Amino acid sequence: MLLQSGLLGPETLPLLLVAAGLGLSIAEAIAPGAHFVVIGVALLAAGLVGLALGPIAGLVVGPFVLGILVLLFGALAFYGYREFDLYGGKGQDQTSDSRSLRGETGRVTERVTPTGGEVKLDSGGFNPFYSARSVDGEIPEGSEVMVVDPGGGNVVTVESLEGGVDDIDRELARERERRARERDDATDDDTELETERE
């Protein structure tokens, strides 16, 4: 529509692609996570080639040629992004949602209380720092923690792994006590049978 109105001519299209590519690259730098990197690189490269070919060839690179260049550079950027693993995690599971953080471990970077704090998760993605709340009590800086409730967003509930007793530990202790009682009862029964025989 802009091309038809005469406000934007075909000679300015490469400049528009460069501007859009730079804008998406800046957006990627502000909010990393590989959301804009492929299309930003594709638009930027196609725009730069269009700007370079215009004066060299003495012709205006048309929208169709620029579209093909965007697709070509997009495919190359995607291949490079996947092959060179720019954001890490190749061959590893990636965090798909907050529920996948349950059970992840990390370290406290800022003292964690029931109302606030910060942790760095071992496999927390490109930005592994999360606001954190403790289940109960205070967890000092440098302590190892585990996510017990991912909550949502970037706030997780954590529990200390250093000397803490959780539900699983309590259940294992109850099971050990029950088995010990059963062994004692079986030993007492055997002792009574031997006493009766004598």
TrEMBL record:
<keyword id="KW-1133">Transmembrane helix</keyword>
<feature type="transmembrane region" description="Helical">
    <location>
        <begin position="36"/>
        <end position="54"/>
    </location>
</feature>
<feature type="region of interest" description="Disordered">
    <location>
        <begin position="166"/>
        <end position="198"/>
    </location>
</feature>
<dbReference type="InterPro" id="IPR052165">
    <property type="entry name" value="Membrane_assoc_protease"/>
</dbReference>
<feature type="compositionally biased region" description="Basic and acidic residues">
    <location>
        <begin position="99"/>
        <end position="110"/>
    </location>
</feature>
<protein>
    <submittedName>
        <fullName>NfeD family protein</fullName>
    </submittedName>
</protein>
<keyword id="KW-0472">Membrane</keyword>
<dbReference type="InterPro" id="IPR012340">
    <property type="entry name" value="NA-bd_OB-fold"/>
</dbReference>
<feature type="compositionally biased region" description="Basic and acidic residues">
    <location>
        <begin position="170"/>
        <end position="184"/>
    </location>
</feature>
<feature type="compositionally biased region" description="Acidic residues">
    <location>
        <begin position="185"/>
        <end position="198"/>
    </location>
</feature>
<feature type="transmembrane region" description="Helical">
    <location>
        <begin position="12"/>
        <end position="31"/>
    </location>
</feature>
<feature type="transmembrane region" description="Helical">
    <location>
        <begin position="60"/>
        <end position="81"/>
    </location>
</feature>
<keyword id="KW-0812">Transmembrane</keyword>
<feature type="region of interest" description="Disordered">
    <location>
        <begin position="90"/>
        <end position="111"/>
    </location>
</feature>
